[in-house]
Amino acid sequence: MHLPLEPNASLLHYRLIEQIGQGGMGVVWSAEDTRLGRRVAVKLLAPDLTADADRLARFDREARLLASLNHPNIGALYAIEEAEGERFLVLELIPGETLAERIERGALPIEEALGVARQIAAALAAAHAAGVLHRDLKPANVKVTPEGKVKVLDFGLAKGFQSSEMSPSSPSMSPTLTSLGTRAGVILGTAAYMSPEQARGRNVDRRADVWGLGCVLYEMLTGRRPFAGETVSDTLASVLKEDPDWTALPAGLPPAAQRVLRRMLAKDPGRRVHDVADAILDLDEGAGELAAGPVASAVAPAPRRRVLLPWVLLAVACAAAAWSARLALRAEPISSPVTASILAPLGSRFDLDRGLALSPDGSRLVSVVRGEDGVRRLWLRALDRGTGQILAGTDGARNPFWSPDGRRIGFATDKSLRWIEVDSGVVESLASSLTRPGGGSWGAGGEILISSGGGDTPILLIPASGGEPVPATQPGKAHAHHWPYFLPDGRHFLFLERDYGGGKPLGEIHVGSLDGVPSRKLVSANSNAVYVAPGFLVWWHEGNLRAQRFDADRLALDGEPFVLAAGARFDPRSGYAAFTLSSGGILAFQEQAGKAGNELVWLDREGRELGVLAGLASYYVPRLSPDGSRVATDISDETNRGDIWLLDSARGTPTRFTSWPEDDTAPVWSPDGEQIAFVSTRGEGSSQIYTRPVRGTAEPQSLIQNPEADVTPLDWSRDGFLLLERGSNNAADLWAYSAHDGTSRPYLAGPFAEVAGAFSPDGRLVAFTSNETDRPEIYVATFPTAGERWRVSTDGGAQAVWRRDGGELYYAAPDGQIMAVTVGRSGDARPVLGTPRALFRVDLKEHRSANFATIDGQRFLVNRNVDTGATSPLTLVLQPFARAGR
What we know:
By secondary structure, this protein is mainly β. It has ten helices and 60 strands. The strands form 14 sheets. The chain has a seven-stranded antiparallel β-sheet with strand order 40-39-38-37-36-59-58, with no helix packed on it.
């Protein structure tokens, strides 16, 4: 059965608004996702296509792969749905016109064409890195938004559906010619844009997409296709035998662009550009030649323009010293900023919520990248070179910072502070047994400041030669100090103070002193701040990087703040904005392209996606009810204030459970599923434990009032014990609260941090994470007394989760692998532990709290990171204060 397609018709929770397209695959409507309150595109597949089981199976496999492509230049696939006999896709609704529609008005200006081609190439590079080929690239599959953002559409979707029986009316719009995949001897693609090897039905690789990019670029520059014919056969003959009319290219096309275009359209794949990344470099060289003009040395700096070539970056690095000297003589802004882009290394993506830092002289950049194995490492890039290097010995690194002489890089891991000598690669540990160390700064006097996670935490001071950390600041109750940054005198420093007492983290940038003088507020803000000579304070505010003059001698702000750069990436949970400035005044930052957050997704035991339960938001610690029918999770708003929501585990329908001006987090189900315990800052502003029935409208009741330290509920046993995590940092312990007599007692309390505990289903064991070795590991211990413990993990682990029958235990390894361990019982009830084995790898929200859940060990609900801007390049700006007018 098929519903009549008309405005306001509903398919599941999608309300159709208007038809916006129609093609061989079906009809496309704009629609409203009433569950998430956003506009989407709904593509309803033609009935003759949905009737073919083989096509549907192939389509589902490919669509799952495509849904993993998160890139700002790729149109997103949100879901595959079926309702009332309709099979349909839910896609990102992209405003603007297709590139084909734009070309109908004539050829594009050279600068615009190169910019569009650059964005298409970036999309292809991201897809190729994920193992996905497009194979049907054409102007009709590219949209350009009114802001000039390019979105590449239909990655591989057509090849799963188009039939060899279709008779296209135009070679330029001919659909995929067969539905038989990529086997040798089978033609697949659109005739006017397919590569010669595609036309011959041979196996193809990423060079087929390079050819398609060349065809699209040629058409943008000339207004006509490079290969044409009255029929599909004529067009294929042109592809195989003829060369494009190179004389039709515009006269002003830079030589580098001409060279790369000819290489992209080489008929022999062996002579063609092999990788889109190489094409990107050549396109950027062409853009650089275009920007420089015929007399580059005599031309003033161009307006904001992105280039990537080593010679441009060398110019940036060399100019930094001269610019710094100029500013030292006269504190005047220079006329115009010069901008470049830096891409993450192939096979990796930036993890810039974990930090980046320019060397003091601005010649090198270090950033955190995450490889295909899921491990974070430091990547060092000299700005006068086209490539960088992964620094060995930096696995798990975050928050890098430079020594004043630029010879060493400090960085944090899960519980230690280390530095690496750049030239020799020697790594040394400065301090261990830290809990979630954060941002650091290296002072001119040889001291290092480091922040740490949790509430009521000070900035710590550690000698650069190593030693025990001592507090450098004194935060008040429900306050935390983060992101220290030394001022030039080596005695004073900036830091962020956040007040968590009211639930909403209100922040202030303070200036502190190593001399014991109390810190004082400079400005209200919620991010890290840095100082740059000859006198500017820079921080993040409402989506932009903001700057204001700052007198480092008087420790006082002057004048009015102004916007330095727009769209910088910001993590509201940590208060970190991804930007860095060198002492010479070079700025590097990542724009907040796309959206970042989490989604709750069902995966099977092999990691195959079964469906998205809840779309993009800021979820934290999802908990399945004992019967698996509901999910409790807290969801944070844009101010980082959380409320608890209940979701139907089958349909994802959300119901608000708490609503309070303060913060409600960390829900835990009672064994019968009738109550939820959670932590809240309501009351007097300190964290307290409350309970509330799931049914009815009863108000939350305080369970544990005015605790001496932060407490978080972790699990609730069938015997009436509530397992609590008490304290923070190295003082974190596990406590047990008895519902029978209302008393609390230490369960695991010692010199190490024991966190994230979970009861076995029978309540006789507790699985937990401890840092008593070099890294967090999973252990189990007996309950109600921890008379003996057994180590479960063998190579690091966190987030222990039990199967409902207690026969298997799951945890997350440091590389994101979800591990499984069988758990049996001996005659004396001691656990018999199997060997850990990997099930699948996933990018969890974090690796400390339980961010996945399961009932039967066959389906896993995972709180998965989603970051559509993670593959965006870094923006590098020379003269960032140019045109500031200050």
